[in-house]
From TrEMBL:
InterPro entries: Beta_Casp, MBL, Metallo-B-lactamas, RibonucZ/Hydroxyglut_hydro, RMMBL. GO terms for molecular function: hydrolase activity; RNA endonuclease activity. The lineage of its organism: Archaea, Thermoproteota, Thermoprotei, Thermoproteales, Thermoproteaceae. Keywords: Hydrolase. The keyword Protein transport does not apply. Residues 13-197 form the Metallo-beta-lactamase domain. This is Beta-lactamase domain protein. Transmembrane segments: none annotated. SMART domains: Beta-Casp, Lactamase_B. CDD domains: TTHA0252-CPSF-like_MBL-fold (cd16295). Residues 231-342 form the Beta-Casp domain. It comes from the Archaea. It comes from Pyrobaculum islandicum (strain DSM 4184 / JCM 9189 / GEO3).
Length: 430
């Protein structure tokens, strides 16, 4: 069997991996990244006729955003959870709305993509080709996310997509205990290969304390957040700790995502808390309500998480220069984004205007990815005969983890560093 890395090799984002066997061509994710100008960067092209099946791990665009490109003239089955496909549909529509000028697909291709979906349930094996079976398990990353176990023509391959083994308020950690102990290959994300995340209890305690101090001091709190996953986690954290005596506003795409996830309570860690959180949250459907949110002491959760646009940027312009307010960033901030600028410089250039941040400014590591410690423990669960392939990471970060494992006698780690690299599993077993 050949494994070709179409994207996500030596980089974080646009993950795409192609498994080629004698009778099957199985695509694992097909994402998109965006450059500094907001233009999409896709994985290497693959011919739809070479595919017998697609597995989509979750709905974030860096894993799903390229798929409609493959559905212009074909209908290869896409295997994923129902929630992932429903969320992907919404994410595609939003991407077309924001970047349609640059995207080489339209709603017509999105409809074809959705029509090709075959829903999966955690733990239930499904035949996906000739002598090929796929079983998925909860990945703990965002609602509906899945780790895939592909058994194909005598080989066993585990593909993590993005995953998190730590319980959050939204989800239970990844279901790693049901994964095979001795697969031939694990293709796993290693986004945070060199970074440990803080203990969850301390993170929540520090975050809630900062929110309360700001509100009790007469200010409001803006939380720019990723619409899918992070916004829901922040909302649940606030409600869990009783901050809901103050108004909590939800703006942007997060409102629709909240309602979609609510239809899948069985996938959540605490459905009761989620239901309560949605009852507490005040949705912002109009400019009138948005203006009202700014006129009272409140918490406002709004995309985009890096302040590159969206409702969060509107609030930021209004709130940044009031010392009583707080701007708390719970998401990763990429270089060359306003979020990164304000953390590193204390100001951001927005629409050609320099906006200095006088509000209380803090960053909280609410990551939904496994950190270095969790990645290491995950690898050590498996036999040393299993070959580990690290994707969705930059080589510098990955080298930290690889060196630690080499020092402990692990010689089964492989790091592809550029799209287009290809390996044969048979050669890795030698």
């Amino acid at each position: 069997m050949k494994i070709r890395f179409l994207g996500g090799a030596g980089e974080v984002g646009r993950l795409a991996v192609f498994l080629k066997t004698a009778s099957n061509g199985i695509l694992l994710d097909y994402g998109v990244s965006f450059d500094a100008q907001g233009r999409p960067v896709f994985p290497l092209h693959i011919r739809p006729r070479d595919l017998t099946a697609v597995f989509l791990s979750h709905a974030h665009l860096d894993h799903s955003g390229g798929l409609p490109l493959l559905y212009i003239s074909s209908r290869t089955p896409i295997y994923s959870t129902s929630l992932t496909m429903e969320l992907s549909d919404l994410m595609y529509t939003d991407a077309i709305k924001l970047s349609g000028y640059y995207l080489p697909y339209t709603q017509e291709e999105v409809r074809e993509t959705m029509a090709s979906a075959i829903p999966l349930i955690y733990g239930e094996p499904v035949e996906i080709g000739r002598d090929a079976v796929l079983t998925i398990y909860n990945a703990g990353h965002i609602p509906g996310s899945a780790i895939g176990v592909v058994e194909v023509e005598g080989w066993v391959v585990v593909f993590t997509g993005d995953f998190n083994t730590v319980d959050t308020n939204l989800l239970r950690g990844a279901d790693v205990y049901n994964l095979p102990k001795n697969p031939d290959v694990i293709i796993m994300e290693a986004t945070y290969a060199s970074t440990d995340h803080p203990p969850r209890e301390k993170l929540e305690r520090d975050f809630i304390q900062a929110v309360r101090e700001t509100l009790e001091g007469g200010g409001s709190v803006l939380i720019p957040s990723f619409a899918l996953g992070r916004a829901q986690e922040i909302l649940l954290t606030l409600v869990k700790h009783g901050v809901d005596k103050y108004p909590i506003y939800i703006d942007g795409l997060a409102r629709q995502i909240n309602q979609i996830i609510a239809r899948y309570p069985h996938l959540l860690r605490d459905p009761g808390l989620y239901k309560k959180a949605l009852e507490v949250a005040i949705e912002v459907p109009s400019a009138y309500v948005r203006k009202g949110a700014l006129e009272e002491h409140s918490v406002i959760i709004a995309p985009a998480g890096m302040l590159k646009g969206g409702a969060a940027l509107y609030y930021f312009k209004k709130m940044a220069q009031n010392k009583k307010n707080g701007i708390f960033l719970p998401s990763f901030q990429a270089p060359n984004t306003p979020g990164f600028e304000i953390l590193s410089k204390g100001y951001a250039v927005v629409d050609g205007t320099i906006i200095k941040v006088d509000a209380r400014l803090e960053w909280f590591d609410f990551s939904a990815h496994a950190g270095r410690r969790e990645l290491e423990h995950f690898i050590k669960r498996f036999s040393r005969d299993t070959k580990i392939i690290l994707v969705h990471t930059d080589p510098l970060s990955a080298s930290v983890l690889i060196r630690r494992l080499i020092n402990e006698g692990y010689d089964n780690i492989y790091l592809p560093t550029a799209p287009g690299e290809e390996v044969r599993i048979s050669s890795l077993k030698e």
